[in-house]
Amino acid sequence: MQEAGSKEVTEAQIAVHWKEEEFVNPPTKFIAQANMADPSIFERFKEENFPECYREYADMLSWDSYWHTTLDTSNPPFWRWFVGGKLNASYNCVDRHLAKYRNKAAIIWVPEPENEADEVITYQELYARVNEFALVLKEFAGLKKGSRITFHLPMIPSLPISMLSAARLGIIHNEVFGGFSAKACAERMEDSKSYVLVTCDGYYRNGQLIDKKADADITVEEAKKLGINVEKVLVWRRYPGRYLSKSEMVEGRDYFIDYLMKKFRGKRVPPLSMDAEDPLFLMYTSGSTGRPKGCQHRTGGYLAYVAGTSKYVQDIHPEDVYWCFADIGWITGHSYIVYGPLAVAATTVMYEGVPMFPDAGRPWRIAERLGVNIFHTAPTTLRMLRKSGPMEPGKYGYHFKCMTTVGEPIEPEVWKWYYNIVGKGEAAITDTWWQTENGGFLCSTVPALLPMKPGSAGPGMPGIYPVIYDEEGKEVKAGLGKAGNICIRNPWPGMMQTIWGDHERFVRQYYSKYCKDVASKDWHAWPYFAGDGAVQASDGYYRILGRVDDVIKVAGHRLGTKELENAALTTEAISEAAAIALVDELRGHVPVIYASVKPSYTPSREIELEVIANIAKELGPIAKPKAVYLVPDLPKTRSGKIMRRVLASISNSEDYGDLTTLANPDIVETIRKMVQGDKGPTKK
Ligand code: WT7
Question: Long-range pairs for 380-384 at CB < 8 Å and ≥24 separation?
C-alpha cells in the first residue's frame, strides 16, 4: 500500500473555481533597498545552470574546506550536496560575526509578562553562552558528534542557545514543540534513541505560569515504558537561581543548567568541523501513518538554503530587526528564527507568549518598541489578530518593509488586511509555501522582482522547478483551472536527507508515487511528491489548496488522522475511531472525532470527554478535538475502509456525493441527523 494519495476523491479530480486576484506591486521604497533587485537571478538559477547555481547560496557561508561536488546523485533519491565540504553551523551563526558585530543584538527576547524587561543577547554574549553550554553537553553529559539530544523547550532564549551549542559539537538536536505532550516527547526520544532531555522549569503562556519540569517527569516515565532510560534531565531556569516548578529535582538525574554552567564560565570549546552531509538536527512531523517521522536535515545544504532564502526572500540585512512570530518547535522557527537569520547576522526577535496577551495590540507594541522592520507569521495568527483588533496596527508607529506568511493558504481577505493594515501599504509580502521536510521556501515571490498576488504562493523559488501531476502522473498544465498534486522536479540543498532510521519509508512517502525509473541515477526521474493539492494560473503562480493525504493542519500544525485515531482508541470504551478536519474560522481546521463504542458500553458524555482528555494526553493540547460523536457505526466501503471523506462532508455541511461504494449507506443519514439535526439532506 502506498502511504500517500490514498484518498477516494483526489484533489486532482476537483476542478477549482476561484477568482484570480490582481497583481500587487511591491512598494518602490522596498525595491530601492532590496538585497536582490537584479533579475538575472532567474537566469542564474534556471534549469540549465542547475545544480551549480546553488554555489551562490553556499558561498554565503564560511567553509573550513571547500566542496568538490555540488550535487552527487549516485544513490537516488538520497541526494548529497556540497560533497567534501566542511563547516560548522554554530560557527557560521555566531563566531564568524564577532569581528564585525560583537556588540550587536543577535537575539532580543520578549517575555510574555509585559512588565518584564526584554533580554538582549549580543553576538558576543551568545558566543559565551553557546560555548559554556556546549561544554556542559560535552564534559558533563558526555555527548559527542552524532549523539542525539532532545529538547522540550518553549520560546525562551535557552532554546536557540541549546541548538547552537549542540550544533557546535555535531550533536544532533531534536526539539519537540512545546504544545506536544510529554508522551509525544518520549516517543520522539525513543525513535531517535536519545538519552538526554533538556527542558526548563516554567514559562508564561496566556498569563499563566506553565510548569514544564512536571512534563519532563512524565516524559522520563513514558520513555522508560518504551525502553529508553533517560539518563539526564537538564533544566534551564527561566530566572537563574530561582526554581518555578513544583516538581522535585531527582538526584543523580536532574540538574540545573545555570549551576552546571558556572564551572565552565569563560571557557571555550572550538566548533567541530562537520561534513556538509553530517546531520544537523531532526524535526518530527506527522504523516499519513501513525508514527511521526524524524525529518533528518543536513548541515551544509540546509544552512546554505536557509541563508540564501533569508537574504533574498525575507530581505534580511544585518542591520534589520527581524521578527518571526512563530514557534522554534516548528521548522519555521528552526530555519527562520534561528539558523537563517543568524547565518546572515540579523537581529532576531523571539517572543515567549501568545498573540493576544494581554490584548490584540501586543504584537504591534513589540514591533514599535523594538523597531522591527521585517515581520513573519502564520495565517492563523493573522486571522486571530484581525478578528480581535482589526484596527490595532494603526495605533502603533512601527514600519515594516517586508512581511512573510507561512503554514497554510492565506485567504485573500486576510492577505489584504495584512497588506493594508498591518503593513500600512508600505511592505512587500511573501507568501512562502514549504514543509518540514524541505528546510526552506519552495514557492514564493522574490519580493523586489515579482509582483504579489493575494492568496497565491507565487512561482517556484529560483532553483526550484515545480510541476503539477494528476493521479496518473500526467502533467496538469498551467491556466487550465484544474488542480493536481504539486511536486518538485529537482533536488535542492534544503531538502531533508532521509527519515531518521527509515530510508525505505522516505522513498515510499516522497518518491515512489511519481518515480519514472527506479533504476535511474538521473534526478529527472525522481520528482518529489509534496502531498499538497495545487493549481497553477496561466501566469505561473501556484495556489496551494491543502493536503491530499491524511494530514490535518490545525493552526498551522500538522496532525496525522492516524495519530488522532490511535489516541482516541486508548479510551477503553472505544472500538473504532475516525478523525476528520472541520473548517475553523481562526485555526484553519480543527479535528473532530467520530467513534463507535464497544458492545458492552453505552455512548455517554463521559466517554466523549475521556476521548478528548486522552487525545490531549497522548498528543498534546494542540490536538484536542472540537467535538466527539459516538455513532452506532462508521461509514465503510465493502472492503472495510472507513470513509472519512463522508464524515468530513457531514461536519462541514457539504454534499457528501457518491455513496454507492459504501457497505452501510444508511448509517450516513443517521450520523447526519446526529450532527446537523433534523434539517434534511445536505446540499452543496
Ligand atoms: C504543509 C506543511 C513550512 C513551514 C510550516 C509548515 C501547508 C505551508 C503554506 C502556504 C499554503 C501552506 C501545506 C504543506 N503550507 N505553507 N504558504 N500556503 N499552504 O510546515 O508543518 O510541515 O506543514 O503546510 O499543506 O504541505 P509543515
Answer: 380/407, 380/408, 380/555, 380/556, 380/586, 380/587, 380/588, 381/325, 381/355, 382/410, 382/414, 382/417, 382/418, 382/422, 383/414, 383/585, 383/586, 384/355, 384/356, 384/360, 384/586
